[in-house]
Amino acid sequence: MQAYFTQFVKTGNPNQEDQLDWPLVAADHPAKIVFNQAITVEKLT
């Protein structure tokens, strides 16, 4: 989480080459990142 936040502060984009992409959130494509043992992206329900 800290790496995503730091990258976002520096560039306005939380994504980095060596990490899972943080998806854009849109009404037709809601998603969330789950920070557990393995980080995943899941559809919001």
UniProtKB/TrEMBL annotation:
<dbReference type="InterPro" id="IPR029058">
    <property type="entry name" value="AB_hydrolase_fold"/>
</dbReference>
<protein>
    <submittedName>
        <fullName>Carboxylesterase family protein</fullName>
    </submittedName>
</protein>
